[in-house]
Amino acid sequence: MERPAKRRAPDDAGQNRAPTSLTRSISPPGPSKLKRARISEPAAQDEEETSSEAEDKAQDDDDETSSEAEDDTPLRASSSKPTSTEATKPKQDKPGPTTQKVFQSPFQLTKIIPIHTKHDYPPEYNIETVSLHDLLSDPLISELWEFNYLHDIDFLMSHLDPDVRHLVQVHVVHGFWKKEDANRLALQEQASQYENVTLHAAFMPEMFGTHHSKMMILLRRDDTAQVVIHTANMIARDWGGMTQAVWRSPMLPLLKKSTTPTTAERGNNDGQQGKLEIGSGERFKVDFLNYLLSYEKRRPTCRGIIEELRKYDFSAVRGALVGSVPGRHGIHGHDDGSETLWGWAAMKQALKAVPIQAGKAKAEIAIQVSSIATLGPTDNWLSGTLFEAFCAGKVTTTQSSQSDSARSVGSKMMGFLGKSQQLGAASKPGFKVIFPTADEIRSSLDGYNSGGSIHTKISSAQQKKQLLYLKPMFYHWGNEPPPSPPPPGPSMVKTGGTEGSTEVAVGVMNAGRNRAAPHIKTYIRYSNLISDTTNNVDIEWALLTSANLSKQAWGEAPSSSGEMRIASYELGVLVWPALFTQGAVMRGTFLTDTPTPSSSMRPEEAAAAAVVGLRLPYSLPLRKYGQDEIPWVAAASYDEPDWRGVYWRD
């Protein structure tokens, strides 16, 4: 278990960014030389993650009161249809530049603020990033609900505007249910210093579960609300030198008064429920409120914020909520898809709404996490349950979601493929697991300290068998050549280079986070992850989440009765190109949130109605583990010092 750091990261200034789209004029690409990525490398920091073997959690009845609050019935999606935004192109009598809409990345990286390095972090690596100060310093914030695993209330309060800090109603939701838990006692001590801070202990029915969701809800004095789902614990280290990311909803206005309230406003089922499209803002609201309602099973926890959020309009949200709540749950839901599912079943349900283009290059799904739990001596659960869910999709044999010109280009390209190749393009994707090695932890911004937040185990017989089937899938977090031997003695020299070094191999698409150890968790489906060496990375869908690679987070394999068991609270957001406008494509971006015109754009990308950026946290192409390399193990001892001269001994 990780404890809140005592050292604080300095406040960083910045401006809130609302989701925006741009337009640009482009011409069809011609022959071009291969572009090389900028030679530079990101900083690395360590992230905290829950241990796969949590301590036993026998629920303390003395700490809870049973509650049968009204309106606790899970919501069903009502029958209103979501609005869609469509990019328009001017009619042209002859070939020429077309107007293409550009959307910034729905996920933002957090700003890197190193604690131990002597030099400032390269400013180009922090372009279009977001800090906690950016999220919380608005003086219009009147109420804040903060959900997390680890909390430092002093650190949280320090980022509120000082003029209104004592006026903001702050609610902290945690999972420390035992009265004698040291983390709970520390929270109570900190909260007692603030009259406007209220603590809420989440209901934790599962023995090995944790309250691992990372989310904030902001209510503002201008009658707007905002939901922020992210990957960082509310402690200084996580918001300093580690790689983290944030998804922010648009500012949500109050609903206009209506004589016929929707199901989400009513909070009950009255026979008028129907299917709302997965990915629509209205469906997001239903699933989000159902997530919050899961806290109400044993005692009032989130009742106040649930009632407030019913009043707000979520229609501008683009994304599908993928959450986990502890307990036993069905895996199928209603035939019309209107029921909120959890864990891998929720992911599978959402992916069935995501268009997957046949005829593209072989797909790859990159799983990047900070903790890998004990999954079993065979890959039955990993391949048969989790990976099977990730393979879901709405496979299309034509590019129906693209513009007419893009479909024309796609049809011509399909003509060059044989029938077997076309069918093969829709086959199951390959899987890659991105996880740091000990060398990457040693050279990270916080050195070995960052490794305390990154977990896997390989010591027991079962764990060694697990390593055998995972090893072929392992890829490095950072894209650097293997480090050179360290200098003798506790030198303040980075293993493989000097402190503050930002070198990156030529030809690498640099994300600027090689040395910022990953606490972020992403699951991304690419169509050209390994083979493409241009700055064009096609993305079919992407998930930002708190969920690591574990049964506790995603859920066990289904039972014979069609139920699965989940131990922890988790929360994430799934996005894909068609959410933003008809005919859009999604493209990976590096060192920026905004996709930029490129002479190396493929014809189908140039013909797309819109390009959506997705800020990637790691550099490409991925670098596979060497034959003798193994993942970082926090429980092991390492005789080689990190770049700060610190040793890691068990």
UniProtKB/TrEMBL annotation:
Comp. bias intervals (Basic and acidic residues): 1-11
Keywords: DNA damage, DNA repair, Exonuclease, Hydrolase, Nuclease, Nucleus
Compositional bias ranges of the Acidic residues kind: 44-72
GO CC, one annotated term: nucleus
One MF annotation (Gene Ontology) recorded for this entry: double-stranded DNA binding
Native species: Rhypophila decipiens
Protein family: Belongs to the tyrosyl-DNA phosphodiesterase family.
Chain intervals with Polar residues compositional bias: 17-26, 76-87
Name of this protein: Tyrosyl-DNA phosphodiesterase I
One matching Pfam family: Tyr-DNA_phospho
Region Disordered: start-end pairs: 1-105
Coiled coil: none
